Amino acid sequence: xxxxxxxxxxxxxxxxxxxxxxxxxxxxxxxxxxxxxxxxxxxxxxxxxxxxxxxxxxxxxxxxxxxxxxxxxxxxxxxxxxxxxxxxxxxxxxxxxxxxxxxxxxxxxxxxxxxxxxxxxxxxxxxxxxxxxxxxxxxxxxxxxxxxxxxxxxx
Length: 155
Prior knowledge:
Elements: H1 5-137, H2 143-154
Helix pairs in contact: 1-2
């Protein structure tokens, strides 16, 4: 096999022409395709990062609102407990007033019953004393005498 310089030059020229033709025909479309693909991948990565940031922002907002709702719920419970305590205090106060009033009424009734019982006892003692005195003296004792004796006795 022999190498001729003309064959070598023709091969070099063929390679150069093929390179130039391929560069003109294929190089720009391939580079353009790769650039577009690279830009699309970059855009998708930016969109994914933005979506992740949005999701984190929504999560932060959710956590914040959840905390606010928990605080609001705790405040509602606290206010309900205060109101229940106030209502129970009012009920107890009313009950105490009612019991106090009932006790005053009972004491007043007791005093009235006591005075009535004393008066009845006084009348009964007067009658018994009169009867005893009339039996002892075998004479009739006047009511005025009897009342005077009983009053002295009780004094």
